[in-house]
Amino acid sequence: MNYIEFRNITKSFGEFVACHDVSISIKKSEVHSIIGENGAGKSTLMKMLGGIEPATSGDIFLNQKVYKPNSAQDAFKNKIAFIHQHFVLAEQLTGLENILLSFSSGSFSLKIKNTSEVLAAANKILSRFNWKIELSKPVSQLSVGEQQRLEILKALLQEPEIIIFDEPTAVLTPQESEELMQFILQLKRENKTIILISHKLNEIKSVSDSISVLRLGRLIQSSPARELSIENMAELMIGRQVVKNTNFTRPTEREVLIKIPNSDISLFQSEIFGVAGIEGNGQSALIASLLKEMSDRQIKYGDITEDRIKLSVFENMNLWEHMLLKHKNEFLSKGLIFESRLRKVTEDLVKNWDVRPVDIDKPLSEFSGGNQQKFVVGRELWNHPDALLAAHPTRGVDLGAQENIHNSLLEFSKQKKTVVLVSSDLNEVLYLSDRFVILNKNKIYGPFNRGELNEQQIGLIMAADNNDGIRLAGQL
Amino acid sequence: MDSALVLILLSALRVSLPLLFAATGGYFSEKSGVAQIALEAYLLIGAFTAASFTYYSKSLVVGYLAAAVFTALFSQIFSLLILKFKGNSIVIGTGLNLLAMGIIPIISKTIFNSTGSTPSIELPEASPYFPYIVLVLTLAVSFWLSEKTIWGLQMKFAGEKKLALQSVGISPSLRQWQSLTYSAFVTGLGGAVLSTSLSSNYSPLMSSGRGFIALAALIFAGWNLPRSLIVCLFFGLCEALQIQMQSNEAISTYIAAEFIQMIPYAATLAALLVLRSKYPPAELK
Amino acid sequence: MNRNIFNLTRLAPWLGLIGGLVLCCLLALFFHESPWHVFKILTTSFYNSKFDLGLTLFYTTCLIFAGLSFAVPMKAGLFHIGSEGQILFSALIGAYLGTAIVPFDNPFSFIIATAIIILSTLAAGAASALLIAAFKIFKQAHEVVVAIMLNFIFAAITTWLTVNRLQSPTSQNPETALINESFQFLKNDYLKTYFENSPVSVFLFAALGCCMILHFVERKTFIGYKIRAYGANPHAAARLGFTQNEILMISLGMAGVFSAGVGLTEVFGNTFQYKIGFSPQYGFLGIAVSLLAQQNFLGIIGSAFLMACLHKGASDLDLETEHLTRDFSRVLQAIIIFSVAASYYLAQHFAGRKRKS
User: Are the CB atoms for C140 and B276 separated by under 8 Å?
Assistant: First the structure.
């Protein structure tokens, strides 16, 4: 019997169709994974179930009954909990206050907060899963893993039957991810229905009962998990085979470009140097000191920033203005801006990097995330710098563009150039780097050569409280 | 204790009254995520309304109530433009201050045929403790609202994380509107203190920057209500010293009145130099 | 389609202005005045005579400078409402130097002395504005609170200096002595003569020139893009190496210079002395001027003239109506600020609906 059923769901935003005639059935007490590239429509589909967006056409059935939520509140009442990828927590308020909010309603009331009851219920759940979260602390003082547990705790307190996890392991260490997967299986044993959205295929393979694959808004396949291998899934997601270019040779004689400040690590020409680690363990300090070192030594560098929206995109400024801001000296003659050249160069760049739409007068902030990133990468490589800082270069970019960006990083490094790749995606670091270091609590461990450590060993170094005995290269 | 010192402390408490009300009002606005620079306008409107109503009704209670209600009504312009028309709160706040400064003389001319001060109020049997009672009540209600009730929690979420509020089906704008209205209500009471208790009529621009000083107190108390009240008391002390110095002949021959009047503003700047503000509400705009 | 939306949002504040004006006139009903009568006074009294037109152009000059003083920091995302204090301070410095410096009787000495006075006045304006920048750089203090406190402090200081140190011995009013006669060279120039000795002076052309230069600098040199980039996203600007200190110093420094422009216009083009209360809060009027033009430097010329006409009209309400006073000018400014602010939203809303249909 089907517990949740999407029947011919279509969702369009203006002319853009996010979901096209999608029908999926989900059974009770199973773990059902939905996979697909960024923009494949998986989040949109779940937002309809979660009551955040209405469907343009088609119906959702819940327990054989038509279910038409008008708000997140409606989903709530139907015992559907949605655990968002970006936490919906007020950082300056305490964990308990964040939980209390979900017990309140929209009608105006001056009721006193039922603090003690809620606290008791929360502690009961915490002890059931053997979790420890200090609920009296402000959320900003909790670790990312604890914040996610708080988010889950918030959901569980409403005693939901269906729990949607949207990319839950994006910010977790391998160990934390593993614990989360165990937790999901425990929920399943308690007869909850779990919907998991992810692109980490090996995780999905390990916990799912069935898997639905979406591509460009259409359902490609929905089948039991045992019928799909990881390679099958990847192929279905992208629509073609993924060719992984893993072996590349490096010249044996390489010159040192610079040293990383406060460490004994030298960066060579012709290499991709990876920096692994969970975000917030010293990445920003490392990036800042590296950028400072490079500008002090007058090394020409490109800078793909770690947070595109916050550090690379200027609202209300168009593409050629962004080009000018980065490469001002190329477009100034006698102090005035050489506009025709600027426009020509920007137009060529947009065409070479397949940024869409081709409109250099459109503000960068109005492009999609993937197109923004393509433009930024292209702009940073435009003047052939000697080094490139690439921080999370493929975040929020679809698989096709991801492949493109990875290839251009590899190409670039072959031209006697240095790439420093900072990424929280361990697979990306392992796939691209010649050497890498691991950051944990502002300490730099390594460098390790390609293939020296496996994923588990790296995960341990990333997460451990104490890394005595591991090669320490520096402190930030 | 030295009687002169006691006198200064008592007068400090007295002149802090409008600041305490305004800071409490400002707290509810800023905590819900709306930057509030119209406190000055609210004080003026409150002061004028209280002076007029008390003059005609001969009752302080009526004057205070009218001040609070009219200021809350006046603040609907602010709420409408910010919450509905998505205006910038600093721009609209500046406009509101101008509006209060401009409209009061015109109304005053229509009612009292004078653009300057309102006629003086004579209430021989009014209790001098009345403003303090109102203050204690206001602070108690405000503290209860913000710390004990679910409404207060939701109000803070409007300033810290709108999305969380929306996800449980509550409109952040609605909570902001309620909070902004309460903010004006309380600040209007501060205006009433200004014209009916600290003086006996309304005189033009009598708030003289107190709304901004209260806002500054709130900012460098780190948006914490009890701490901002302490800072207000400190500013009150500065003002009390100023009054004391002006009435003291020995001092006022050496230091010009203009410099003594500058003390509260200079103290605010000095405080900004010493302290650094932190923890603004995450969605404060 | 795209062009259409663009035009509508461009046009929005001007429609807002008209809406605001209508609202103001309707407001007059509450005070037993005829809206039509008030409207006529507000919109026509600026050209009653050549003198009146000259006065309006004088207001225009001051409002252009005040509008620029708000608009330039606004490009960098700063709310600069400290112009009023800077105007008072710089005007007093100008008036003091004008009385204190006595040039020798030769053209060379005169030119040097004039340059010194003008540059010092501009520097005084810039310095007083840079105080705000200092607070922001060293203490991350909010520019609005600092600016307001400084407005009060400058008002107190200038009043004290005028009354206690620089009071004109021949006058009953709180004002300084007239500046040295050789500096009153704008007293009988052709512009003043044409406009029947009204306050207008060649500073009007200086103000227009400033607008055009700024317009050019904004589009054709890098500094304009730098400031705009900082205003749009300070974090990203810092990553490109544009430091906060640099942007704050440039934008607020320029704002101070333009504030000083108002002071110069008054002291060297109008009264030739510092009078307490000479400014009908040009600093705040400048906000409305700048918002109306959406910080477009050429647009500021138009919006300053419009606001000047309305301001002139409002100050005539005292004489022409029974209940409305010159304070109505503030009400007018407030309502214009409100309707301009609301008009952006309405324009977008309207454009959005059109796109859907």
Answer: yes
